[in-house]
Amino acid sequence: MSPPLLKLGAVLSTMAMISNWMSQTLPSLVGLNTTRITTSDTLTQISPKEGWQVYSSAQDPDGRCICTVVAPEQNLCSRDAKSRQLRQLLEKVQNMSQSIEVLNLRTQRDFQYVLKMETQMKGLKAKFRQLEDDQKTLMTKHFQDLKEKMDELLPLIPVLEQYKTDAKLITQFKEEIRNLSTVLTGIQEEIGAYDYEELHQRVLSLETRLRDCMKKLTCGKLMKITGPITVKISGTRFGAWMTDPLASEKNNRVWYMDSYTNNKIVREYKSIADFVSGAESRTYNLPFKWAGTNHVVYNGSLYFNKYQSNIIIKYSFDTGRVLAQRSLEYAGFHNVYPYTWGGFSDIDLMADEIGLWAVYATNQNAGNIVISQLNQDTLEVLKSWSTGYPKRSAGESFMICGTLYVTNSHLTGAKVYYSYSTKTSTYEYTDIPFHNQYFHISMLDYNARDRALYAWNNGHQVLFNVTLFHVIKTEDDT
């Protein structure tokens, strides 16, 4: 018999010992007087007046416990102490018998699994002998066969876990499976070592080709928004958080501006991880209070709307000084043309792959959205586009590749409903849903470096992933 079957025999022997133990100790468990127990068929004379007594126990061929008892003389009172003891004894014997039957069924079932495992392990042994004869011809097919055999063995572990009678046997099985896994891992590493240099060169080539392909990606059209990913829960119901889309890959600073008014404090964090843990690296005290939540950090400077005005401020984080400020002509401010949620969100500053933008509304355009491209140094308006979408009906908006995308609400059920291309000066109505998980969005801005939307959603700082339809430049494109 193979080792697994020997171990199962040990388990069945253990069950037999449990049965003998029950027959010898059961009377004392229920509180009855005991008498001398024999394992033969000889009857020990016991006076029936002494109460119910277990006088004999034996084990049938299947390993089940058989107990024989002597009944006392009948008593007219069925509720005396000995009657109660009898009922308790019968209940316990019945429960024990049922438990043994269940255990027996589990043993038979597990026995079948172990037989299957023995066959599979014999197959593995033959495979390993084949590997020893010719390792270099192993490669894909033989290794895959071994992995499939291992996949068949692994599900047997939870089955064996149910069988709690012999924990040591289960531990040994686990150790054998673990050893086999280690051997297979070593084989996998050995196989990989044969063509390591070739694989390394292929990876480098693929990486180069991917980088070249990314460089050819032109601006794309928004097709889908997924998420959100909740980064942190902090601050009031309204606010803004952002990173610099023009920063290097190693520069991942985060800026955090709580509330939409009556505040001048900007908090800086060196990374997203520090932002999540709350480890501030620096705090800036701006010279003016801001209005709204639609600020943007671009090329190391903060652009924001000065409170109770249509003036745009450019503030340098490096020098701690205002580098430029300019009035945005005819732009409404202080809740004249805000987004649907209010909060002095009249002027929305944003950036994309093309540059710096301001989105606002004017009386001259009947309160509809105006898009202006700004000079990042002087804040001068380079060009403007007048749309037909009412600013007060927009939930939020953001720019991607020179196209403005407008949501129809800041509440549950919001979707990207309208888009305007500054390249073609045309608009279209869209239907791009996204999950407003926390029911109230007060800031939504696109970051071209991360290809993601940063949002402030009812005191939650979240990220949305965007899917763009890209056009790849060819060598013939000019």
TrEMBL record:
Main location: secreted
Signal peptide: none
Protein name: NOE3 protein
Gene designation: Olfm3
PROSITE patterns per record: OLF
Cellular localization per UniProt: Secreted; Synapse
Cysteines engaged in disulfide bonds, as pairs: C219-C401
Record GO biological process: signal transduction
Domain annotation Olfactomedin-like: ranges: 218-470
Coiled coil ranges: 79-141, 170-216
UniProt keyword list: Coiled coil, Disulfide bond, Glycoprotein, Secreted, Signal, Synapse
Cellular component annotations (GO), alphabetically ordered: extracellular space; synapse
